[in-house]
Amino acid sequence: MGKHSMTEASGSSLSSMPEWYTQGLPHIWLPYSQMKTASAPLAAAHTHNTRITLTDGRELVDGVAAWWTACHGYNHPHIRQAVCQQMETMPHVMFGGMVHEPALRLASRLCAMLPGDLERVFFTDSGSVSVEVAMKMAIQYRLNKGQNKRTKMLAFRGGYHGDTLATMSVCDPEEGMHHLYGAALMEHVISPLPVDEASTAVFLDLLAKHAHELAAIITEPLVQGAGGMLFHAPQTLRTLRKAADDHDVLLILDEIFTGFGRTGTMFACQQAGIVPDIITLSKALTGGTMALAATVARRHVFEAFLSDNPEHALMHGPTFMANPLACACANASLDLFETEPRLQQVQDINTFLTEALEPCRTLPGVKDVRTLGAIGVVELEKINNPDALRQRFIAEGVWIRPFRNIVYLTPAFTIEKQDLRKLTDAIYKVLS
Ligand SMILES: *Cc1c(COP(=O)(O)O)cnc(C)c1O
Question: What is the pLDDT of residues 188-206, one digit of tens each?
Fold first, then answer.
């Protein structure tokens, strides 16, 4: 493993690992990991519905659905079939000056599902890039109208919008994972979310003061995910919509985590009855099978780019945008939302989690227990060693990834009762 070795994977010694693991691991740089001290990563061999089987034969119940993506569970036969079929006809073709059925079908289906006149889809291949595209759209919307001073975003404490340079600058500047980069980032306006009278006053004041230099307000609706699964009421979104209108500022909702049923409705903004000017989607868009993201704009945003001036065009175009395989996955995922009772399953998971996590409230060190849709959160005063906690969960046969001060579940909507029980039992046992 080389001299900067990670500690051994829990439960298996390196000598029993397959050759590809011992050969390849010294050449891998893992995400969000101190490579000197992090536990060695598990070796996944195959997956099925909500289970991950490791090369040593151990099986884990996935409590987080592969970073919040695999909403139908792993290896859903309908998605698998769609990918195989697409693979045979056209795995990829460039999207510059050319279109194809999977992308155009997907675009019209997404627009039919989204509220209001969100009707123009720009495809990218990751969530962060879809947010960058949303920010570019908002900035250029102003430029195309001859306003070259309105280039900033108003973003919120607790927010997370991605790991690229531009998206880091709209994440929480202190609590976020990116404060070290401070000096390298663009400066935006960071406000508290308007959740009560005091924070609303601060927000409205910041907005009034900076409106002349703002292109857009950006937030995650109902749940700030990577910020610690922080929930807010639909009223907060109505406050944002009205304030954005009053100051003629665009509203971008980042539904990369909340989109596709996670909070109980297809999109979180529907619970507030508001329509953002731009929305970003990714994570569960393909049912967690392939990398794909979409930035969807309302008609008035798109129309600001229609001009006889070539410079008014949106200058962006990822090489693999609208990859046909990924679009085929997304179409198959949308089929499943139509043919299987996903939103009812979310409701049932919510009922289960609310009841099963409640006993955690009285455990020492527990600060809060909360659920929304298919999200269950146990918030602790503090987690001293998240890595050690993860290892405890692995020993219980579950894949649960505590971060910051929370232990949370975002299971696949197709999870069986007994697997869900295994997850909540493990949380209670380990936290005890
Ligand atoms: C995950 C996430 C992103 C970033 O998506 P990537 O595909 O990891 O780049 C952006 N915004 C929110 C709300 C997310 O949850």
Answer: 999 999 999 999 999 999 9
